[in-house]
Amino acid sequence: MLGNAKDVGYHESFNIEFSMKLPATTSKLLALQEATNAELRVRLAGIFQRYRKLAFIGRNDNLFTEHWTPEVAAAGYDFDGFEIKGANIILHGVENACGFIYRINISLPLELIDDAAAIEAYFQRQLAESKAESELAATTTRTPDPAAL
Questions:
Q1: Neighbour tally for 97: CB within 10 Å
Q2: Which residues are CB-contacts of 125 (< 8 A; sequence separation ≥ 6)?
Q3: CA separation for the pair 71, 76 (Å, rounded)
Q4: What tens-digit pLDDT sequence spans the chain (149 residues)?
Q5: How does DSSP classify residue 131?
Q6: pTM of the predicted structure, to 2 decimals
Q7: How, if at all, do strands 78-85 and 2-5 pair?
Q8: R_g over Cα of the chain
Q9: What DSSP string runs through 26-72?
Q10: Closest by CA position to 104, among listed 133, 134, 80, 132
Q11: How far apart, in whole angstroms, are the C-alpha atoms of residue 83 and residue 2?
């Protein structure tokens, strides 16, 4: 039975409000793990699909901007898995195109994982910051118009 789980490895300790009885057999425990992993993949895939364009928001090179938007560039990527690194969860995506395998990832603080509004706000802040950086870069790298000289 689990009561107060401590040192779960990726996050601070947490309290389970009820006692959880784990399956008595290893095969049932493996089935539980499989079901849990499947549900995690569905939930995390939804987050990835919604915010995958953020993997491309920092791209402002001419080749990219002439042909794609972040939404178009991310459209072919499917959720491929996740990992927890420190206080962040990293969502991985993959696209198979023309014989090549392309990979992207997005990350967010693990503490936000249960709060859809906080996840939305986090990624909206990232979009706003990227837009501000791009606009700043555009104003500082413009070459003067020769006719204006």
A1: 9
A2: none
A3: 10
A4: 454 444 445 555 555 566 778 999 999 999 999 999 999 999 999 999 999 999 998 888 889 989 999 999 999 999 999 999 999 999 999 999 999 999 999 999 999 999 999 999 999 999 898 888 777 776 766 555 556 55
A5: H
A6: 0.76
A7: unpaired
A8: 21
A9: HHHHHHHHHHHHHHHHHHHHHHHHHHGGGGGTT---HHHHHH--HHH
A10: 80
A11: 24
DSSP 8-class letter at 93 = E
d(CA 81, CA 78): 9
Both tokens assigned to 109: 């603080």
AA letter at 30: L
What's the burial of 88, exposed, middle or buried (CB within 10 Å: 0-12/13-18/19+)?
middle
Q: What is the DSSP letter of 102?
A: E
- How is residue 113 written in tokens? 């994982």
Shortest CA distance to 77 belongs to which of 99, 96, 50, 56?
96
CB 94 within 8 A of CB 80: yes
Length of the chain: 149
Distance CA 82, CA 105 (A): 9
